[in-house]
Design goal:
CATH class of one domain in chain B: Mainly Alpha
Distance between the termini of chain B: 72 Å
Number of strands of chain A: 0
CATH topology of the largest domain in chain A: Helix Hairpins
Helix content of chain A: over 70%
Shape of chain B: extended
Number of strands of chain B: 0
Largest sheet of chain A: none
Low-confidence stretches of chain B: none
Structural class of chain A: mainly alpha
Number of helices of chain B: 12
CATH topology of one domain in chain B: Four Helix Bundle (Hemerythrin (Met), subunit A)
Order of helices and strands of chain A: HHHHH
Mean pLDDT of chain B: 85
Number of helices of chain A: 5
Number of domains of chain A: 2
Strand content of chain A: under 5%
CATH class of the largest domain in chain A: Mainly Alpha
Structural class of chain B: mainly alpha
Oligomer: heterodimer
Chain lengths: 135, 229
């Protein structure tokens, strides 16, 4: 275990001796726009992974909500950045987020209606067992 | 836009919570647990919205997403039977080969996106350096004459009134279209979730199908008020 971790410790030590860790710590103490965008990107990718790997259609829907939420986070972060670079009334990103939330609510209502109808007819919600359109 | 002090502490707490809850949403075996983890992820993102001084959106996020959409999800999970998946009889992921391919794809996406965001933001910072310099102080002086809140810890922002003004001034047509969209969604989901019996009672089924189904289901035959010609 220790021998496995040795290269990591060596790398950490090397970085610390060059003063890069201090810079990284200083950046982490003052998160800026790029940190918010990275969090948004990570949430987006977690959602994509959920859509691609899960079999349960309800969990796939929830992953889509996660993707939409990541987009919302990007909109809000960009809106704040625009407010700070001069245009103090820049709320277009926030307004767009309201519409994203509306469309997400409509999508969830329709999608879950389809899930219920599907379950009534096929007795399953696993996507690889739903293949009536496949010849 | 640079956070500092307690703001940055809360930023790290809530962003790590959002990402962990998102990961657990995708990986939880029990679908109810998935929904609860998604709720905690959404609440963490709402806290990030508050850090970005978008209080109205944070409230809407919690009221609409957590209070409305996720409750709908929980209802549907209760309506369908996911027991075999929860008990471990069913595989929760796709076939291993598909999962490996998509994990590799997502890993590449993470690497590329983080690299691109860092270089892209460096360009942003370069361009807006002079504008960003005094933005925190400018915000403080701008918010000086806002009313303080009851606890005295912060000021009552005018974020909501600014959003309302812009929403009705520049986006009133999309706002109306959104209401029509919600109406269509309500009607559509009611239509989709009807049972055959409910469809038969409003005479909305193919007579051939109805005759066939009524042969096996005596309740359905009662619903038929008049004989089909």
């Amino acid at each position: 275990m220790f021998t496995l971790l040795m290269p990591a410790f060596a790398l950490l030590f090397q970085e610390a001796s060059r003063g890069r860790l201090a810079v990284a710590w200083q950046k982490a103490e003052h998160p800026d726009l790029s940190k918010f965008l990275i969090i948004g990107a990570l949430l987006f990718i977690i959602g994509v992974a959920g859509v691609l790997t899960r079999r349960n259609i309800i969990v796939i829907f929830m992953s889509i909500e996660l993707i939409l939420n990541a987009a919302n986070l990007n909109f809000i972060a960009m809106s704040r950045y625009l407010q700070d670079t001069g245009n103090e009334n820049a709320v277009a990103g926030q307004i767009f987020t309201v519409f994203v939330i509306v469309v997400a609510a409509a999508e969830a209502a329709i999608g879950l209606g389809i899930v219920i109808a599907l379950y009534r007819n096929k007795e399953t919600i696993l996507i690889d067992e739903i293949d009536i359109l496949k010849w | 836009m640079v956070l500092s002090g307690w703001e940055s502490v809360f930023f790290w707490i809530f962003s790590i919570a959002a990402i962990f809850a998102g990961l657990l949403t995708v990986m939880a075996r029990n679908t109810i647990h998935s929904a609860l983890f998604l709720i905690s992820s959404l609440v963490s993102v709402a806290a990030l919205f508050i850090l970005l001084q978008a209080e109205f959106i944070a409230g809407v996020q919690i009221l609409v997403y957590v209070g409305g959409v996720m409750v709908l999800f929980l209802f549907v999970i209760m309506l369908v039977n996911v027991g075999s998946e929860e008990r471990g009889n069913e595989e929760i992921f796709n076939r291993p080969r598909q999962v490996t391919a998509s994990i590799i794809f997502c890993g590449l996406l993470v690497a590329v996106l983080i690299g691109a965001l860092n270089t892209g933001y460096a360009g942003f910072e370069e361009r807006d350096r002079t504008k960003l310099q005094g933005s925190a102080e400018a915000r403080l002086t701008r918010d000086k004459d806002l009313a303080t809140s009851a606890t005295g810890a912060s000021r009552i922002t005018n974020d909501t009134s600014r959003i309302g003004n812009s929403l009705y001034r520049f986006a009133s047509l999309p706002f109306e279209i959104a209401s029509v969209l919600l109406l269509v969604a309500i009607i559509g989901s009611v239509m989709l979730a009807r049972t055959l019996k409910q469809e038969a009672s409003v005479d909305d089924v193919d007579p051939e199908v109805l005759r066939k189904e009524a042969a096996t289901d005596p309740e359905l035959a009662e619903v038929q008020s008049e004989p089909i010609a």
